[in-house]
């Protein structure tokens, strides 16, 4: 019998109104488990339990929160290989990447265990004699966290950990495609002593569970990572209940390669940024903007390296690229490959592949001869596809890089300090990489973008306090 996995509400494992199958995109015959789909009534129960549990949780003080997060971190580390195998099975990320992501989740919990003891305030002199002014941070309250399928361990961790560190109560809804990793994390959080009601797991479709979270009046803030259309819908609906919002919604990230770049470094950075994790990263290098003098040599070397990548099952030792996460995502990727040809690109790779098992395998693709006004250069594909755009010089490269509705991450490969500095200053994005892939960030620094990529305070690092706390200014007169 395949295990049935339940929702966690108010410290109790409870069923939903139906079960959803979780299957392995590397091997569709592998049924990982059946997961309970919550209802709007379940969300209401979780929100009420969270609100009721908050006073006692906050009264415990920061040391209790720090110790809980440290216990969670140690447990996640100890079970990293088990959780990583689950992650690889349900999302398709190759096993070494999956285990590394789980260890990153442990690092995040450990970091915020320390942050729980470092919540800062201010004391200011008043303009009035005898008056003292203090500024303190207080928990936001009950927070809803909606996480995507592409990082099933790291993104729940970087939302849940700061939420708990700063004294909030949590309702977590993981992506319906990858409930298994989040369920394992939820079990650890519960078993390591998180009080009933302070952490709740509600699984199921966004149209039901996510919508109920957006609409619920007891949920004070909502942190969402996912698609642009869903993020925009949340922004509009969240206004009705005056929620504090934190939205991360994707990118069409440029990687600029100048004539003076170290080609070995540039090819490695673009190969990683565009195709690792099957290109299923919001920070992926989906536009490769290459100066004319090095364009042909760069394309030749990147093509050779790309076609040599071994695509296969996530758990196979020789796989370098796993499957696409779902049939729908694969169909969308292949539609973009056809669109690239229709728009006039020369397409290298991109076809669906037969694997040793039935799964959603696709060869990575380059779209050569792309122009920045093409749909394949403007719309987020979220797959192993990269458009190559030739430019004349640095000024054109920067202009093309900024000509996008997104603004998450941007990179440049160059040996010129002048151009690196100008790119850091001129790129209209939240994160800039110099001689590094556009994907790949540290857990203790802010994450987020500009324009259509992000809305609200940054995630990660000490800056997470901007979302998960609210400011209180207090005046006192000493006589």
Describe the structure.
With 479 residues, the chain is α/β, with parallel strands linked by helices. The chain folds into two domains: 4-249 and 444-477, Aldehyde Dehydrogenase, Chain A, domain 1; 253-434, Aldehyde Dehydrogenase, Chain A, domain 2 (3-Layer(aba) Sandwich), CATH 3.40.309.10. 38% of the residues lie in helices and 24% in strands. The protein has a seven-stranded mixed beta sheet with strand order 15-18-19-14-13-20-21, with helices on both faces. It has a six-stranded mixed beta sheet with strand order 10-9-8-11-12-22, with helices on both faces. A three-stranded mixed beta sheet has the order 1-5-4, with helices on one face. Helix 8 (228-238) links the parallel strand 11 (221-225) and strand 12. The longest helix has 21 residues, at 95-115. The radius of gyration is 23 Å and the shape is globular. The relative contact order is 0.14.
| Beta-strand content estimate | 15-25%
**Radius of gyration, CA atoms, in whole angstroms:** 23 Å
The CATH superfamily label of the largest domain reads Aldehyde Dehydrogenase, Chain A, domain 1
Low-confidence stretches: none
Major sheet characteristics: 7 strands, mixed
Q: For the largest beta sheet, what order do the strands appear in spatially?
A: 15-18-19-14-13-20-21
CATH classification, class level of the largest domain: Alpha Beta
Shape: globular
Distance between the termini: 73 Å
Q: What is the third-level CATH name, the topology of the largest domain?
A: Aldehyde Dehydrogenase, Chain A, domain 1
Mean pLDDT: 97
Tell me the number of strands: 23
Count helical runs: 14
Helix content: 25-40%
């Amino acid at each position: 019998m395949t295990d049935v996995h339940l929702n966690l509400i108010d410290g109790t494992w409870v069923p939903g109104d139906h079960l959803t199958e979780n299957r392995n995109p590397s091997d569709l015959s592998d049924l990982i488990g059946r997961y309970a789909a919550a209802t709007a009534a379940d969300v209401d129960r979780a929100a009420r339990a969270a609100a009721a549990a908050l006073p006692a949780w906050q009264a415990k003080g920061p040391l209790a929160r720090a110790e809980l997060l440290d216990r969670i971190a140690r447990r996640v580390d100890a079970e990293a290989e088990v959780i990583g195998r689950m992650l690889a099975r349900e999302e398709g990320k190759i096993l070494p990447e999956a285990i590394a992501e789980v260890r990153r989740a442990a690092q995040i919990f450990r970091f915020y265990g320390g942050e729980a003891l470092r919540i800062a305030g201010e004391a200011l002199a008043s303009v009035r004699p005898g008056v003292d002014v203090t500024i303190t941070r207080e928990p936001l309250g009950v927070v809803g966290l909606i996480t995507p399928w592409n990082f099933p361990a790291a993104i729940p961790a970087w939302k849940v950990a700061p939420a708990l560190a700063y004294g909030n109560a949590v309702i977590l809804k993981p992506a319906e495609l990858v409930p298994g990793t989040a369920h394992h994390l939820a079990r650890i959080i519960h078993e390591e002593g998180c009080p009933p009601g302070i952490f709740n797991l509600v699984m199921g479709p966004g149209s039901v569970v996510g919508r109920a979270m957006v609409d619920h009046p007891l949920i004070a803030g909502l942190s969402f990572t996912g698609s642009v259309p869903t993020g925009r819908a949340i922004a509009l609906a969240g206004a009705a209940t005056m929620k504090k919002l934190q939205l991360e919604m994707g990118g069409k990230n440029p990687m600029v390669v100048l004539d003076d770049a170290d080609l070995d470094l540039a090819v490695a950075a673009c190969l990683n940024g565009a195709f690792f994790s099957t290109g299923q990263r919001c920070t992926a290098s989906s536009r490769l903007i290459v100066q004319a003098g090095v364009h042909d040599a760069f394309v030749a070397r990147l093509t050779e390296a790309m076609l040599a990548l071994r695509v296969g099952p996530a758990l196979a030792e020789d796989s370098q690229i796993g499957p696409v996460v779902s049939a729908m995502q694969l169909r969308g990727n292949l539609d973009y490959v056809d669109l690239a040809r229709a728009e006039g690109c020369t397409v290298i790779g991109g076809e669906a592949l037969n694997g040793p098992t039935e799964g959603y395998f696709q060869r990575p693709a380059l779209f050569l001869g792309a122009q920045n006004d093409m749909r394949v250069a403007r719309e987020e594909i979220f797959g192993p596809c990269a458009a190559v755009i030739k430019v004349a010089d640095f000024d054109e490269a920067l202009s093309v890089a900024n000509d996008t509705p997104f603004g998450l991450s941007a990179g440049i490969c160059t040996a010129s300090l002048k151009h690196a500095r100008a790119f850091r200053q001129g790129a209209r994005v939240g994160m800039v990489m110099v001689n590094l892939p556009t994907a790949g960030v540290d857990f203790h620094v802010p994450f987020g973008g500009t324009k259509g990529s992000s809305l609200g305070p940054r995630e990660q690092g000490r800056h997470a306090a901007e979302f998960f706390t609210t400011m209180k200014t207090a005046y006192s007169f000493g006589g």
